[in-house]
Amino acid sequence: MTKRSAYLPLVCMAIPLAFASCATVMNRPVHSIRITTDPHIDRVDIGQAIRSDSSFYHNPGDPRDYLLARSRDTIRVSVLHHHVRDTLSLVARNSVAYWLNINCNYGLGMLVDRDNLKRYAYPQHLYIGLRDSGIYRLRFAPFEK
What we know:
- This protein has a 5-stranded mixed beta sheet, with no helix packed on it. A 3-stranded antiparallel beta sheet has the order 2-5-6, with no helix packed on it. Strands 7-8 form a two-stranded antiparallel sheet.
- The protein has one domain (3-53, 64-138).
- It has 145 residues and is an alpha+beta fold.
- The protein has 5 helices and 10 strands.
């Protein structure tokens, strides 16, 4: 047996490991979120946003899209209403593609994605409403029954 043929089983096992991570393959390095607000909220700012939908004619309550870099850090959303500034926190969670590793490769891809920032995601839809006590958040905007 030569040295070259001794490494062949290791190489054959390493190639599937390189392609075993779902989050690395499926997720982009940036994540898009859509924020809809109550009509009484004046402004929403995300300091870490790479880009935002900054259309000039923006009606209050219309949804706006923000592009964020994937990270494990908590994102602060600053909300201005009636000249009062409040903040919300968006916590990074493991993305669906990260959990897909369990079905696709029996969790082996979770080891590959362990230190990759593409494994994290923020909520894709967010509604920020206004109450007497302050602001609140929901996953989707309420609708008339």
